[in-house]
Amino acid sequence: MKPRFLCGECQNEIQWGALECPNCGKPIEWPEVTSSESGGGIASAEAMCPTCGSENATDADFCSSCGAKLKAQGTVSSGKQRSGQSRPSPKQGKARAGRKSQESSSSMFSWKAIFGFLGVLLILVVALELFPSRDPQPAQQTSTTPQAPAANMQLINQINDLEKRVATDPNDMQSLKTLANVCQDGRFFDKAIVQYRKYLEKNPRDVDVRVDMGICYFETSSLEEARKEMEMALKYDPKHVATNFNLGIVSLRAGNVKEANEWFKKTIALAPNTDMGRQAKQILEQHSSPLIQNK
């Protein structure tokens, strides 16, 4: 008689080879059978069924009497699952499927993150190529070893020659005056003031030189000294156009607009058709001053 197979959990009868109990759903693990060995260690020609004790051929997979699963002797286990081995329950299958889904999702996320980072990096590189940094630069670049232009070198050489000439002959007033003017043109204002003062010690009535020295003081922001020199020039020549105009500029720089307008008005009165006269008129108009009168 063929034996009955009962579920170890609920004792319900199950069919041979079923993967799980039809009543409680418990996975069924069927016993595997190894064939007996002879004294010489060589597998016997028949295999005994562990369930009913019947002998079967060594290459049989199931018992010919009761149908129990027999394990073939001498075979190597493969990666494929045998029909009689336990299989994971549906819940375990879902869990593994969930883990595979999570692993797949995680892998996709990782690749998305990598591609996203590479995309941002590419955009930054393109942006740097198209829009190079534009840091503010000085109006005039200066090298670490500045070299004077040819004109400045010529000016410096001229100053050196004049200084030698004046040193050789201190009474050469023309060379001294030229030296002071060249220093002023080269914007060496402090040196120009020294030379102008030497010249004025022997030529105090030279109004043009005194105004030039006042301009050098103005350029060095010594407004009070500039005013004194120009007012001294007016004592020698009250109608000196450049002196009146420059006193207006000095007063304007000092913030005294009313006084500056008075000097500009005098400039216009002295020389209305000169460059200084027209410039004085323009400054007065900018100040919306009613002091201009047609004479």
Structure explained in plain terms:
It is built from nine helices and four strands; from the N terminus they run ββββααααααααα. Helix content is 52%, strand content 3%. The strands form two sheets. It has a two-stranded antiparallel sheet with strand order 1-2. By secondary structure, it is mainly alpha-helical. The radius of gyration is 57 Å and the shape is rod-shaped. It has helices at residues 90-130, 150-168, 173-185, 189-202, 207-219, 223-236, 241-253, 257-270, 275-286; strands at 5-6, 13-14, 46-48, 55-57. It has two domains: 11-73 and 84-92, no CATH class; 150-286, Tetratricopeptide repeat domain (Serine Threonine Protein Phosphatase 5, Tetratricopeptide repeat).
